[in-house]
Backbone:
């Protein structure tokens, strides 16, 4: 049965998509069967990996919210070999209204059940989520059993950390399994005191749940995205690859 | 009559809030009367400036979408002297459903009229918007007459640039005044080729509409946010302040 992990933070641009892609790839290199799902209507993960968003026939929207084909049929192979992804689609914009209008008690049960159909085929399912306070983010929290919060080492991003941790607590009423597996500090510029101060604040507030590994600020992650590859494919022996491999190791220890 | 400018990009973390605050402050130092409005339900601009989100009585939500007090009464003074801001509120989350359910023809006319009531009192109104494909972003595009798109110099952020420019075109059907005043390239790390390549791509695709000034990647902007001040108050003579002063100068020339 797969570990289903929502990669989420209401704050924008903290490295959710970059983390989803690179952590998934690192888990594959560690021998795990992994699938990514793009739950963001902007479909950035899909465009990162060069997967054409599912078009014409069923998209992820129909499979999760309609009468579409099962998600297994939407899976696409990507790099490194063994990594799969379900492409996103702007159709997901339609999910906001649908979810808002659904009766609260069973608002997420349909998409959650359809998403969990994938769990027998994989060891990990990683869900990339949109920023902002959207229903799709809550849908990801309902379908997942674990949460990883990428967190930029910047003061302005701290405001979002409080909001997402509050929402995780709230979602436990709907999804009692849900637990915070880790807060991943990202984009640290080691030359600055400010980033170190923010890291210190987060470690003091959240303790052990914060991953020991911190992802450095590095243009190599941006270059890898331009090349459409996870960092471990783009620069296999680089320290930027090592950082996400270390996160994967820590995650595997946190059952 | 104020120039009403939506600071917007569907991509997260590209510097929308940082640009709204610092550009507004630079315009005040250039002698203009300026007000900021926080149209993001997460209220990051409000927490940046240390303004307690409007609570208890009317929030921006009631003033824009309900029968609340006029926005003039919600204005708060902030730094530098002469800059005002209407605080945001998580109540704005309620606007998504309200706007989706409103008949398309007059979906934004109420909030647009109420927002434009401020235009006699100021030279500039800057609207900070949320990331993602949300109705509140469209509401900002409906109320504004101009758009500034902060754009991170990173390949992964280019996908969002296409999406926002397409939505601006679409919104012209509802708001024929709407024009793109500028694309502001942000967070350039001058040490990297990648950022320069992305800048080149954006200048080639959009030409003159891209501001000549590029905002550098600098922790000083994060420090200023931690201090709750615009960069021109936090570090008055620093190059980071000069960069937004130069953007303000360019904007004043683009009538
Ligand atoms: N460690 C890093 N160092 C430098 N740049 C990074 C790093 N991680 C991500 N980036 C870049 O920062 C930007 C934001 O990253 P990303 O798009 O993954 O964040 P996100 O949280 O998914 O954004 P959104 O909120 O829009 O979904 C991208 O341009 C990406 O290439
Ligand atoms: N030029 C810059 N150099 C370095 N850091 C910056 C710069 N501009 C903004 N930042 C930092 O980058 C992060 C993103 O900036 P900001 O929050 O303004 O973006 P945003 O587009 O408003 O994000 P969101 O999509 O969540 O609304 C913040 O932590 C901010 O302090
Ligand atoms: Mg993303
Ligand atoms: Mg913002």
Residues:
């Amino acid at each position: 049965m797969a570990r289903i992990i929502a990669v989420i933070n209401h704050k924008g641009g903290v490295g959710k998509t970059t983390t989803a892609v690179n952590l998934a790839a690192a888990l594959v290199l560690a021998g795990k069967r992994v699938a990514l799902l793009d739950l963001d209507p902007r479909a950035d993960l899909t465009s990162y990996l060069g997967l054409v968003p599912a078009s014409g026939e069923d998209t992820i929207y129909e499979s999760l919210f309609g009468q579409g084909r099962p998600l297994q049929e939407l899976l696409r192979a990507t790099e490194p070999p063994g990594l799969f992804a379900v492409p996103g689609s702007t159709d997901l914009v339609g999910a906001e209204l649908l979810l808002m209008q659904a009766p609260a008690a069973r608002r997420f049960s349909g998409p959650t059940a359809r998403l969990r159909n994938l769990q027998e085929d994989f060891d990990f399912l990683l869900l990339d989520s949109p920023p902002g306070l959207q229903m799709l983010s809550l849908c990801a929290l309902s379908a997942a059993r674990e949460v990883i919060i990428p967190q930029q080492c910047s003061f302005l991003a701290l405001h979002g950390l409080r909001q997402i941790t509050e929402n995780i607590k709230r979602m436990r009423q709907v999804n009692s399994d849900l637990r915070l597996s880790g807060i991943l500090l990202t984009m640290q510029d080691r030359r600055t005191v400010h980033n170190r101060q923010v890291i210190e604040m987060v470690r003091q507030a959240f303790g052990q749940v914060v991953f020991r590994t911190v992802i450095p600020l590095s243009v190599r992650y941006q270059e890898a995205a331009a090349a459409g590859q996870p960092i471990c494919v783009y620069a296999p022996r680089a320290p930027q690859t090592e950082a996400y491999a270390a996160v994967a190791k820590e995650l595997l220890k946190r059952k």
Observations:
- The first strand of chain A starts at residue 3 and ends at 7.
